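User: Some background: our group keeps a shared notebook of sequences we're curious about, and every so often someone picks one and asks for a predicted structure to add to the entry. Today it's my turn. The entry only has the sequence so far, pasted here. Could you supply the structure so I can complete it?
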Amino acid sequence: MPLIPEEPQIHESAQGPRGTAAGHPAPTPRPVPGPRSAASPRPGRPGPGPARPGPPVPRPHAAAAQAPSARAENRSEQRTGPQIQLIPAPVDGAIDAAEEAVDLLLETGRAPGDVLVLTTGEQHPWAAHELSFGETAYWALQDAGDDVFFAGADAVERAAARPVVVVALNGGTEEAVAKALPLAMGRASALLIVCGDPQRINAVLGAGV
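Assistant: Of course. Here's the predicted structure to add to the notebook entry:
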């Protein structure tokens, strides 16, 4: 079989290097170049053993690029305000983007009770459903603190502080958004995620984003 000298790879056989001829071992145990199939990982730094496989490829996710690392979040908690992350989204897609951000937070270890979701336009369907049972029962769910809580941005002053606040800019006037975002930042002790038009968000939060 022809050799491919430009891509040296260590054989994965544990029986040692091949001989140069039948019954004669190779003179030195140096890596031997060989063909690499399309499924084989590209070798890393050369070494005496098989190359380690590369890191797993993360599954595609709308908010994956925005997911915070624990180290970055710990740094943000030492600052005077929360870390701010922006997820670009149209008005009619802001709630979907917020829900995906929440899913990613929960998948990476955040407790549901750590997360508050605010909407600047129409209520999130969950909030609308729970409010149909009365405000007393609705706000009791927030006080229980054992699940993600959804609220309208106009009620942010009544919302309790949580480590993570996710804001969906799904409508509302410029004045309402300008008021809601700073208040949402005040409710987030570690991380503020804003889903919406980047220019609109930067106009309110400025260089903090």
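Suggested note for the entry: The chain has six helices and five strands. Residues 1-22, 28-78 have pLDDT under 50 and may be disordered.
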